[in-house]
């Protein structure tokens, strides 16, 4: 089957650079008693369920001479063993060794000649644990029509659910001439595409301008541009190809306690926690912090009314995006929370409801698809500048399993945007809130300081509730 990339898919595909690979990562740490989840078991599960995410067997083909946007085509030589890989830590592997491995794997761009995803089974973790790290290109996952593969390999019981046999046969891959003719034929039926083709052929649009001026302009400006007036900050720096990754593990009940005491939202409590940590981190670096100092954060996922185990329903969830100035200059944690709460209430939000179809498919879901939607939402802010991307997506509040192995922890690994030294992703799962901090190895060598300060900041807010 052949289908053309949407303007936004094409924009993400073309916006990728060696120092800013545009893939969404997810890390699941599992209890693997008696080796229930082996490489062969994982291979079998994914192979049987690829029919539920058909794009994972497709690759991108570019149209000759830039006559049209690239297309998705079936990979006639699809080899699942290429995409699902096996790695091991020296036993007994520590969590820090795992995070270092994730950082290295996150640094590597995906092979554009193959379907744009990889999955790693990491063995050798201490305490009878293993891990699965998955990365999928932002062009591959849109959260609506194309979901992240984590949705299909998770089960709500330790017995994998049955899936109908898949009789997939790859479609014939078109040649260059066929792709060019097809693209030109579309111009006849959609003359507006002729402007796009003209720009591409004469080179005026260029690789950085994208496939349509409007669609790519939004992505390139929203994701990659910083205004000349943007305040200097150690969070805004030239970044390398190498990454650091660290995590924070907290209890969802702590944020509920803060919500109940101060009358704010769980999302506000999380943002206040991040703000307090950023304040102390900036001071530790000797940065000038005055009472008016702020860090502008883009928060493309502010959903926290979903399946959180407190009687609320995921059917009320919305994808809500906004930019908020985090008051890192305010020394009092309660006043910081108050500022954030008022800002998120008063801010003009651009929202869209998660479709009913998506909600049905999210029953017992992996939140990586929502994080992918979050990164895409940033393209709506072409005229806005921000220092930090914070994605925050709810996950299932019941234990989930992969091949009989129980998932203990789930962490998002959000991509770094151009000239941004760190991104923070959060996922709630089974009564916990897990932070994944993806950072540039050179510009953010002290990411471990930031993780320690997140714990301190949360403790400060809890003490204020006493």
From TrEMBL:
InterPro entries listed in its UniProt record? Acyl_transf_WS/DGAT, O-acyltransferase_WSD1-like, O-acyltransferase_WSD1_C, O-acyltransferase_WSD1_N
O-acyltransferase WSD1 C-terminal domain: which residues?
316-461
Catalysis: reaction(s): an acyl-CoA + a 1,2-diacyl-sn-glycerol = a triacyl-sn-glycerol + CoA
The record's Gene Ontology biological-process terms are:
biological process involved in interaction with host; glycerol metabolic process; response to hypoxia; response to nitric oxide; triglyceride biosynthetic process
Q: Name one GO cellular component term.
A: plasma membrane
O-acyltransferase WSD1-like N-terminal domain location is: 5-269
Protein's UniProt keywords contain Ubl conjugation: no
Pathway(s) where this gene product acts: Glycerolipid metabolism; triacylglycerol biosynthesis; Lipid metabolism
User: Which keywords does UniProt give here?
Assistant: Acyltransferase, Glycerol metabolism, Lipid biosynthesis, Lipid metabolism, Transferase
> Which Enzyme Commission numbers does its entry carry?
2.3.1.20
- Class of enzymatic activity (EC top level): transferase
Q: Which GO terms describe its molecular function?
A: diacylglycerol O-acyltransferase activity
Query: What protein family is recorded?
Result: Belongs to the long-chain O-acyltransferase family.
Name of the protein this chain belongs to: Diacylglycerol O-acyltransferase
